[in-house]
Write a structure and sequence with these properties.
The complex is a heterodimer. Chain A has a domain of 167 residues: Glucose Oxidase, domain 1 (3-Layer(bba) Sandwich). Chain A is 11% helix and 35% strand. In chain A, helix 3 packs parallel to helix 4. The radius of gyration of chain A is 26 Å and the shape is elongated. By secondary structure, chain B is α/β, with parallel strands linked by helices. Helix content of chain B is 36%, strand content 25%. In chain B, the strands form 4 sheets. In chain B, strands 11-10-9-12-13-14-20-17 form an 8-stranded mixed sheet. Chain B is globular. Classes of the chains: A mainly beta, B alpha/beta. Chains A and B meet through helix 4 of A and helix 2, helix 3, helix 7, helix 9 and helix 10 of B.
Chain lengths: 336, 444
């Protein structure tokens, strides 16, 4: 894991029902809406080609409405003939969603709207109904796992040192819309509080998996859980539990604080849009600090002189394989 | 892992003669293959597609039934989110209309996916013709037999590299070889970083193979917890541990899969995960219509992969007995990836209601073991001798292996006490009985 400034690309998968999307070559900034669409409910199948007496291949030529358009009840969708005209009308208000191979139409009622925002400053490299891909230059940190939807906001340091935990008391509504760097660990309480306060996303060395299960459900795994909708966004940089951020990772956060940033959860990357020189572009991976069977993420967090000891709640350190301690007994099985 | 397929001639890299591999074949799990299953309304149709997906070692990312209660849009969205590499379709003539509609959902959901998913149809010619017309723009291939679908899916996992031997195929060969040699049914149990396999081979060469991905001790460890539940993993640890601490260790294990277990605590955690991986694979195999009873009663069982590489043979045996829950007399072998196969023990599973006797006959004489319900331990027979056992509800023969004859009277299904105060001593006792934990307090 290193800070690197390069040209990156990021895919933005689109849900079904896209209405408008950025076109290839278009310039976008992180946070810009690159696609919008409708959330659709159960679709109705409307006979098309057979009703008009056309072959499926001819039917699409007679369509009066483009597939993907919104239609109102009784709107004419297709029509043939002049004197003895035959037509197909929309049975409901909704979206003309799909034309089947047989020349039938699917129309679905619209129940909500959605938007997808860019997570990179750059140019649209690919755009279709399934995905919009953006390419652009940014500082990037590739993390271990990410959870929740993509997030965009101003990068803000929430701790005073790389080995400090982010305390819930440091989160309030003034941090709304920001991406908070949470130091060595963010707990479930911090995640839920940050979400309630409108914080865009959290970045931390480690996140307790038990807390992730509380927030994202029992099916969450170590590979992350990118999702859509109104859920917290968490970027887990090094591992699970608690992980003291190496200086090489943490110091650039201080240099880049205040810059616009984005979390791309599908690829577990943090992009920071700044031309600041953060000192080094290639830093040793934190893995070098790993000992025993687990990553440094296992290493207990001990606030040092740099750490803010005022607001931080001291929590139980994470456990290593080497230091596994039973909850009810301090003895290892072999010691008993 | 490499497999030699011949030996070099004297003097060609083998100064003292034979023994140096002339060519080495790479054995790998292959590339992960995401498969969506679309099947007819009959239960047999569901079993068929699940069966062949499991047999091919593909990851099932979506299942859609002809009578799926989801709406058209929801089905299309589910298929889009699944991002399948292959969609396997199975159904009869009466499912044709519903399957055609699901193909429309696939067109809507995955029409823009790159690369596009391929469609493998295990359907009769008439249905295939009707579906093929509706499958555009996807590539549609019809197969007449499930084995052809399995082979094609495996080809995709090889990603066009003909030199790669899939680990599944190697495990199947191992099971087949064991069955042929012993002229009995043989089961191979393989647990790796991200896969768990159960392969039942018959003496006539037929096999039933279940390869579950991702489900293992490294990258698949978190999936074991997600599927089998954390409490089920935790119950096998012979000391109390709180759920968050255990979860943390499992998640970090999934992040760093290649780090070998170096402490006893880490080995015991791997053992716990392996038991649940095997048990879960068995449940999935049962759901897919595999003959799980035959697997549990196989007279010969081969353990491979990470489970076979535990420091002590007793640890491998304990994982097998707890995870598989054999129901007959089985001779157990283990073969680590980088080691030789060894016969480690014989398992005699009995379920007496009261006290029972088991006669053990060997060349040096015969003895009688008195078995009480719940007992678990080795009978005194000597190492690696020919043994025949006979008792109430149990009869069989084999070789005792290096560890001896393990009599398991804990009953089936194996039920662990709920309370820690009762469960931990019981689990510790079972570990001690198989010398699976250090008795002198030193780390393994």
């Amino acid at each position: 894991m290193t800070w690197r400034r390069e040209r990156w690309s990021a895919d933005h998968p689109l849900p079904i029902g896209v209405t408008k999307r950025a076109q290839v070559g278009e310039l976008v900034r992180a946070g810009d809406i690159i696609a919008s669409g409708a959330t659709l409910a159960g679709a109705l199948r409307v006979p098309g080609a057979r009703r008009l007496g056309l072959s499926p291949s001819d039917f699409e030529r007679e369509l009066r409405v483009r597939v993907g358009s919104d239609v109102a009840t009784k709107a004419v969708l297709a029509r043939v003939g002049r004197r003895f005209a035959r037509s197909i009308t929309a049975p409901i208000d909704g979206r003309l969603l799909h034309v089947t191979v047989d020349g039938d139409l699917y129309i679905a009622p619209i129940v909500d709207r959605w938007t997808v925002r860019s997570t990179l400053d750059g140019v649209v490299a690919r755009s279709d109904d399934a995905v919009v891909e953006i390419e652009g230059e940014a500082w990037c940190l590739h993390a271990a796992a990410a959870f929740g939807p993509d997030a965009i906001g101003e990068l803000t340091l929430g701790v005073d040192g790389p080995n400090a935990d982010l305390a819930p008391s440091r989160i309030d509504v003034r941090l709304s819309g920001r991406i908070i760097v949470g130091g060595a660990r963010v707990s479930a309480e911090v995640i839920t509080r940050a979400h309630a306060c409108g914080v865009a996303g959290l970045v931390a060395g480690g996140v307790p998996p038990a807390g992730l299960r509380v927030v994202y459900g029992d099916t969450v795994t170590a590979s992350g859980a990118p999702s859509r909708g109104d859920r917290p966004t968490v970027l887990c940089l090094m591992g699970f539990g608690s992980a003291v951020l190496p200086r090489a990772i943490y110091d650039p956060f201080a240099a880049l604080a205040g810059s616009r940033a984005a979390i791309h959860t599908a690829s577990a990357r943090l992009f920071v849009f700044s031309t600041a020189d953060i000192g080094r572009t290639e830093t040793p991976a934190p893995d070098v600090a790993i000992t025993g069977e687990g990553p440094a993420a296992y290493a207990p967090v001990r606030p040092d002189a740099d750490a803010d000891t005022g607001d931080i709640e001291q929590e139980e350190p994470a456990q290593t394989d080497e230091e596994l301690s039973p909850s009810a007994s301090d003895q290892s099985p072999s010691e008993r | 892992m490499t497999v030699s397929t011949g030996t070099e001639a004297r003097g060609v890299g083998a100064p003292v003669g034979v023994g140096v591999p002339v060519e080495q074949t790479r054995v790998a799990l292959g590339r992960p293959l995401r498969v969506a299953l679309v099947h007819g309304r009959e239960e047999a149709s569901r079993l068929e597609v699940v069966h062949l997906a499991i047999a091919s070692g593909a990851e099932i990312v979506a299942r859609v039934r002809a009578t799926d209660p989801r709406s058209f849009v929801e089905a299309a969205q589910a298929l889009r989110d699944a991002k399948p590499d292959v969609v396997v379709i199975h159904g009869g003539a009466k499912d044709e209309r519903a399957l055609a509609e699901l193909l429309e959902a696939l067109r809507l959901g995955c029409g823009a996916q790159r690369p596009m998913p391929r469609i493998f149809g295990l359907v009769d010619t008439g249905v295939a013709h009707a579906l093929q017309m509706r499958a555009s723009p996807f590539e549609f291939e019809r197969f007449a037999a499930p084995s052809e679908v399995v082979e094609s899916l495996r080809d995709l996992r090889r990603a066009g590299d003909g030199d790669v031997v899939l680990r599944d195929a190697l495990i199947e060969d191992g099971a087949r070889s064991l069955a042929t040699t012993n002229a009995t049914k043989a089961l191979a149990v393989d647990v790796t970083e991200r896969s768990t396999s159960l392969v039942l081979a018959h003496p006539d060469g037929r096999i039933e193979a279940a390869h579950l991905v991702p489900l293992g001790l490294g990258m698949g460890a978190d999936h074991v917890v997600a599927r089998a539940s954390l409490d089920n993993v935790r119950r096998w640890l012979p000391w109390p541990i709180d759920a968050p601490a255990l979860l943390e260790r499992v998640f970090n294990r999934a992040r760093r899969p290649d780090v070998p277990a170096t402490t006893e605590a880490a080995v015991l955690l791997e053992m716990a995960l392996a038991r649940e991986a095997i048990a879960h694979a068995l449940r999935n195999a049962a759901e897919a219509g595999f003959d799980v009873v035959a697997m549990r009663s196989a007279p010969s069982i081969l353990i491979t992969g990470r489970v076979a590489s535990f420091p002590k043979a007793g640890q491998s045996l304990l994982v097998l007995v707890d995870g598989l829950e054999p129901i007959a007399v089985s001779t157990v072998f283990r073969e680590p990836d980088e080691g030789r196969a060894e016969r480690i023990g014989m398992v005699v599973s009995v379920a007496p209601r009261g006290s029972a006797k088991i006669r053990i006959v060997r060349a040096s004489g015969r003895s009688v073991a008195r078995v009480v319900p719940g007992s678990f331990g080795f009978a005194a027979t000597g190492a690696d001798v020919e043994v025949a056992v006979n008792g109430k509800g149990v009869r069989g023969h084999g070789r005792s292996g290096t560890l001896g004859v393990l009599i398991d009277a804990r009953g089936r299904p194996l039920v662990l006490p709920e309370r820690d105060a009762e469960r931990i001593p019981a689990v510790t006792r079972w570990h001690a009985a198989l010398h699976a934990i250090a008795e002198d307090g030193t780390s393994t």
